[in-house]
Design goal:
Length: 230
């Protein structure tokens, strides 16, 4: 499942982040790539332990912990501390798949990557190219979102970032381990969750709808119980 989560950050948070990111010292992004993806990767990153990365990473995690759409779609067990990258001057990232296991360099964090996330800090009008292209069963999805918005996609997908030919593309990227490992099962639970919410909203004060919603909520939790890994 590929899903956009709008307004993860407020305009003020994005502006604050941009101030820190524009002043930060960026290093070659090959540092966090695996052997094979290092050959495809050409971008800049913030060092994981840099104060700006730490501060902004905490800001993102705090925002996500209160975002109902994110929580329903991802069912997160553990989120990797957000990293930050910057593409300019023709930089790109060729087709690759993200590593299955991510170990943090300095923190005691090791996760299985079920879902990959990219949170945008630069507006689409600020740069040309820099599209995140994700290959899924429907073909290639091209993603370029407004600042403060985030895309989630299965970490099993092949993906690439097209060359940035004008301006700079600044994003945060990270992974998470979900309580539901399988993307198809997670999508089913998300659909069921949305349907239950819609039932409650659209058929308010209808006793039959209320009873159905209770029953379906039971089905949701019982499926979750069957499939959850913690
Ligand atoms: Ni990747």
């Amino acid at each position: 499942m590929l899903i956009a989560i709008p307004d993860v950050l407020t305009a003020e948070q994005v502006a604050h982040a941009r101030k820190l990111l524009d002043a930060a010292d960026w290093v070659d992004g090959k540092g966090t790539a695996g052997y094979q993806s290092a050959r495809a990767k050409d971008n800049m990153q913030l060092p994981e332990e840099s104060p700006a990365a730490r501060e902004l990473g905490e800001m993102i995690l705090a925002a996500l912990s209160k975002n109902p759409l994110f929580l329903a779609a991802a069912l997160p067990l553990q989120i990797f501390p957000p990293l930050f990258n910057r593409y300019s001057g023709g930089q790109s990232f060729g087709t690759h798949v993200d590593n299955a296991i991510r170990q943090h360099r300095t923190l005691p964090v090791r996760i299985r990557t079920d879902i990959s996330a990219t949170l945008f800090f630069a507006g689409p009008e600020e740069y040309d190219g820099g599209e995140l292209c994700i290959e899924d069963t429907y073909g290639v999805q091209r993603v370029k979102l407004p600042p403060g918005h985030m895309v989630l996609y299965p970490s099993t997908s092949l993906h690439h970032v097209t060359p940035v030919t004008r301006g700079a593309r600044v994003c945060s990227f990270f992974w998470l381990q979900s309580m539901i490992r399988d993307d198809a099962k997670r999508s089913l639970l998300f659909d069921l969750d949305l349907s239950i919410q819609r039932l409650g909203r659209d058929l308010k004060n209808n006793p039959v709808a209320d009873q159905t919603a209770v029953q379906l909520t039971g089905v949701y939790h019982n499926l979750l119980r069957q499939w959850v890994e913690m």
